[in-house]
Design brief:
CATH class of one domain: Alpha Beta
Number of helices: 2
Largest sheet: 4 strands, antiparallel
Oligomer: single chain
Distance between the termini: 69 Å
CATH topology of one domain: Nuclear Transport Factor 2, Chain: A
Number of strands: 4
InterPro entries: Gas-vesicle_GvpO (IPR008634)
Structural class: alpha+beta
Protein name: Gas vesicle protein
Order of helices and strands: HHEEEE
Strand order of the largest sheet: 1-2-3-4
Helix content: 10-25%
Pfam families: GvpO
Radius of gyration: 25 Å
Shape: elongated
CATH architecture of one domain: Roll
Organism: Streptomyces thermolineatus
Amino acid sequence: MAGHPDRPRLTAAGSRGGTAARRVRCSVRPISTRTPRFRADTLIPMAEQRERRGRPAAGSAVSSPPPVEGPEEAAGRACRCITALTGHPAEGVSAVGRSEDGWHVEVDVLEVPRIPDTTSLLATYEVELDRDGELLRYRRVRRYRRGAADD
């Protein structure tokens, strides 16, 4: 079995050449170039799809997500939600607390990265999660420069 002529063989020790070459397998499948074909009689209206997703399948039990165990988990879930919704990376959490309905978290997000870093714009988002860690609402409450002091 000959390898690619431009790539060196790696041994188990990681050096080039040798006889005990290590093989790495990749599980990436090629992207299909075929265009999917749709039949008009099999399309389901979006409203009906939403309705189906909301109902459990016949004979199956609905399992709710496990409740949030503590402030660390609530903060982590809030950071993931904000990053997914805004597309901006979470920098940290400035406050976490329990509320009547679940959790209240304030997440600091890098909105506009700049050079030098002290001129980057950050924002604080107020995030409310229910007891299961599902997002109830969020809103931006403050936008500021990284180097700016609090008033």
